[in-house]
Amino acid sequence: MPETNAQQGSAAERMGRRKEIIGKVVSNRMQKTIVVQVVRKKAHPFYGRVVSKAKKFYAHDEKNQAHVGDFVRLEETRPLSKLKRWRLKEVVQRAALLPETVAAETQ
User: Do 49 and 43 form a contact (C-beta atoms < 8 A)?
Assistant: First the structure.
C-alpha cells in the first residue's frame, strides 16, 4: 500500500536536528576547506575556576567565503573526507581588516 505524503514526512524530520557550533576561522589556505577553532568554557567541578578548552574542526566551505578571523556557524554533515565532518552554514561576523592589511592585499 503506497504511503501518503503525511506518513512519509520530510527528510529533515527523519534525520533530526543537526548540531551547530560557532567558532573563529584560524586557516583558509586549503581549497574549499577552513579550520575553525571552537573555545568552550566550563567551571571546574571542584575548584570552580573557569577552564577554557579549545578544539579545531575542519569544515567544508564551498564558495570560499570565510576568511581568517571571521566568526562562523558550522553545521554537522556526513563525512566529506578524512577530517571534514562539518559544513559552513553562515558567516556570523566578519573580521575587522586593518588598514595595512588592506593595503598589502591590493598590491
Answer: yes
Q: DSSP 3-state assignment of 52?
A: strand
Decide if 35 contacts 85 (C-beta within 8 A): no
* 3-state secondary structure (DSSP) of residue 15: helix
If pLDDT is split at 50, 70 and 90, which confidence band does 3 have? low
**Pairwise CA distance, residues 25 & 35, whole Å:** 6
| Residue at 37: amino acid letter | Q
Taking phi over 0 as left and psi of -120 to 50 as alpha, with beta for the rest, 43 belongs to beta
Domains and CATH numbers, the chain: 17-96 (2.40.50.140)
Beta-strand relationship, 50-60 and 86-93: parallel
- Residue 99: CA atoms inside 13 Å, Cβ hemisphere, count? 0
pTM score, whole prediction: 0.75
* Structure letter (DSSP) for residue 101: H
